[in-house]
Amino acid sequence: MAQRDYERLGDVAKRVITCSLGAVALAGTTFPIDRQYTADQLGFERIYTNSLDAVSDRDFAIEFAGAASLIMVHLSRLAEEVIFWASEEFRFVTLTDSCSTGSSIMPQKKNPDVPELVRGKTGRVFGHLQGLLTMMKGLPLAYNKDLQEDKEALFDTVKTVNGCLQAMTILLHQGLEFRPQRLTEAVASDFSNATDVADYLAAKGVPFRDSYNLVGTVVKTSLAAGKLLKDLTLEEWQTIHPAFEADIYDAIAPRQVVAARNSLGGTGFDQVRQALANAQKMVEMD
Fold first, then answer.
1. Is 68 domain-assigned?
2. What is the domain range of residue 87?
3. Could you tell me which of 252, 262, 259 has the C-alpha nearest to residue 197?
């Protein structure tokens, strides 16, 4: 998501670096100016070739606000994950003191300040995008004073997104302490490995449509016995289907369940390590 956001900003920049200087109020000028020379000296790559258009549209600001809104969508979704992870129900992470504050009435509570504030700021940026779109929707050519309203929306969007990116960077670098033991407990107490039972049978030659139905039987058997899949005896497994062997326990072990997702772009350990290496290269290159 972040890579696409970065690419979008680069795409927006292609249109932002268009120089309007010399369009004057709306119709150009009678003086023999060299607009291209001025644009070159100021570092612009091109000029607006229509003076009416140059002063009357703010699509570059709207496009930036749209890209900025998507950045905030992605930051907000990440923030939501962190808020979930830090909740008492999940307890996957502990927030450090540098990125949280105490409750005003509950001294034991740590408030996820950074992710909650980022999640809240998202609506602010969305509002600026909507404001810019509304400002432009009915304007005739050429310049109108309504366009003064672009400044506050544009400048505040830059300030808000920049601040949220910095805050989330600090959060990810020094604000989270993961709790591996709690994570292990979470994946060892449910039926999230049921799909791997179906995959196991398919690898043994059982058609997947049959494997799928058999897994339903396995889960029902486990629930009736008050057991998890890992607690079923080999005899119970083989009663359901003779293809089950002792290696079923290895196949449904949490770490193996993760490691097995090794297709390109998957969430297996090898794929994640490669993705991190690729991300690091992109950061260094950019």
1. yes
2. 2-7+55-184
3. 252
Residue 38 resides in a domain: no
CA nearest neighbour of 38 among 20, 54, 12: 20
CATH number, domain of 99, equals 1.20.200.10
* Alpha-carbon torsion angle 63, 69, 72, 76, nearest 10: -150
pLDDT value at position 173?
Answer: 94
Q: Write the CB contacts of 143 (distance below 8 Å, at least 6 apart in sequence).
A: 25, 26, 55, 56
- Structure-token pair, residue 147: 């366009």
Helix, strand or coil, per DSSP, at residue 177: strand
pTM, rounded to two decimals: 0.90
CA distance 67 to 6: 9
Report CA dihedral (113, 114, 116, 122) to the nearest 10 degrees.
Answer: 150
Instruction: Report strand pairing: 110-111 vs 101-102.
Output: antiparallel
Q: Tell me, what's the pLDDT at 126?
A: 98
In terms of DSSP H, where are the helices of the chain?
2-16, 35-42, 51-56, 59-86, 113-136, 150-170, 180-187, 194-203, 208-225, 234-240, 248-251, 254-259, 269-285
User: Block means of pLDDT (10 residues each) for the chain, length 286 residues?
Assistant: 95 94 95 96 95 96 98 98 94 90 73 95 98 97 95 98 97 95 90 95 96 94 93 94 96 95 96 96 88
Task: Give the single-character DSSP code of 267.
Answer: S
* pLDDT for res 98: 84
Q: What is the pLDDT of residue 108?
A: 67
Angle ∠(193,197,200) on CA atoms, nearest 5: 130
